[in-house]
């Protein structure tokens, strides 16, 4: 079993920055793909960014050039550096770990609120 715990969310003004962390415990493995997702009120959960087991990076168009995903396998932690935040980035942010093509493990989420 794998446990994921997000932290680092909060309230920030538009144009500001936040850094989210996702701590992985339990049956950890550097072979997991890891990703960030978000869900805004009244909307479906959407993909934000992914880092594959070999370091490949993938971003949603809406966050590319503003967000940076990274991972520290030695610390079993994944990060999402969010810069130039916009009010439309307001959402609950979730981290997830994939086994193969399926995101099997999910965290509880951390709230990010961007004020205009």
Verbal overview:
- The protein has strands at residues 2-7, 10-13, 18-26, 33-39, 46-51, 57-59, 67-72, 77-82, 91-99, 102-106, 110-115.
- By secondary structure, it is mainly β.
- The protein is built from no helices and eleven strands.
- The strands form two sheets. Strands 2, 4, 5, 6, 9, 10 and 11 form a seven-stranded mixed sheet that branches. A four-stranded antiparallel sheet has the order 1-3-8-7, with no helix packed on it.
- The chain is globular and about 40 Å long.
- The mean pLDDT is 94.
List the SSEs and their pairings:
Elements: E1 2-7, E2 10-13, E3 18-26, E4 33-39, E5 46-51, E6 57-59, E7 67-72, E8 77-82, E9 91-99, E10 102-106, E11 110-115
Parallel strand pairs: 2-11
Antiparallel strand pairs: 1-3, 3-8, 4-5, 4-9, 5-6, 7-8, 9-10, 9-11
Please count the beta strands (DSSP E, at least 2 residues each).
Answer: 11
> Based on helices, strands and strand pairing, what is the structural class?
mainly beta
Kindly estimate the percentage of residues that lie in beta strands according to DSSP. Answer: over 45%
Low-confidence stretches: none
Order of helices and strands: EEEEEEEEEEE
Helical percentage: under 10%
> Radius of gyration in whole Å, from Cα?
13 Å
Q: What does the overall shape look like?
A: globular
Give the integer mean of the pLDDT values.
94
């Amino acid at each position: 079993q794998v446990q994921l715990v997000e932290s680092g969310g909060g309230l920030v003004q538009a144009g500001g920055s936040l850094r989210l962390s996702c701590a992985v415990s339990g049956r950890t493995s550097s072979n997991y793909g890891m990703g960030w997702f978000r869900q805004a009120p009244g909307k479906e959960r959407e993909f934000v960014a992914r880092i594959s087991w070999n370091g490949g990076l993938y971003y949603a168009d809406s966050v590319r050039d503003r967000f940076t995903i990274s991972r520290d396998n030695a610390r079993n932690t994944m990060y999402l550096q969010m810069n130039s935040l916009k009010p439309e980035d307001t959402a609950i942010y979730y981290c997830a770990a994939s086994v193969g093509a399926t995101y099997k493990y999910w965290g509880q989420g951390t709230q990010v609120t961007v004020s205009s």
